[in-house]
Design brief:
Elements: E1 3-12, H1 20-33, E2 37-53, E3 56-68, H2 71-82, E4 88-93, H3 111-124, H4 129-141
Antiparallel strand pairs: 1-3, 1-4, 2-3
Length: 146
């Protein structure tokens, strides 16, 4: 059975930008050698890692979307685990496509409308200064604050 897969790998920053294409071709060659067909191959660029991985704080992310049989993933994982160029990887089965995501039913109002609405409600609630003083006097007399 042919399935869709998505592979994301992280290459440590110790590899230069000139070395990345060679590593990318090596991974793409591995996928095709094992019988997969690459649909998309993309360099997502260098990013700061959330936490250090094998003493690396920055890594280059590469993305591959491909199709293939069930035994394909096991063979790819086995090779990737042994590769010194890859510090992390993730393979997802049947990734979600943008057209599969349903839009939310409720639309979110623009911020300008929310600010305007808040301003309208604060204008309608004017506080009488005498009432405010009376409430403060009552609070202070009740010794609630001590």
């Amino acid at each position: 059975m042919i399935r869709e897969y998505e592979l994301i790998i992280i290459i440590p920053a110790t590899f230069s930008d000139q070395e990345i294409p060679a590593i990318s071709e090596k991974v793409a060659g591995l996928i095709t050698k094992e019988g997969g067909q690459i649909q998309l191959e993309d360099n997502l660029g260098r990013k700061k890692l959330t936490y250090p991985i094998k003493k690396n704080e920055v890594g280059t992310y590469l993305l591959y979307q491909f199709t293939g049989g069930g035994s394909l993933v096991g063979k790819i994982e086995k090779t990737i685990k042994m590769s010194p160029e890859i510090i992390r990887y993730l393979i997802i089965t049947d990734p979600i496509k943008p057209e599969d995501i349903k839009p939310e039913k409720e639309e979110i109002a623009p911020v300008s409308q929310l600010i305007r609405k808040k301003a309208d409600t604060t204008k309608s609630k004017k506080i009488n200064l005498e009432d405010l003083e009376e409430k403060l006097d009552n609070i202070l007399e009740d010794d609630i604050l001590t």
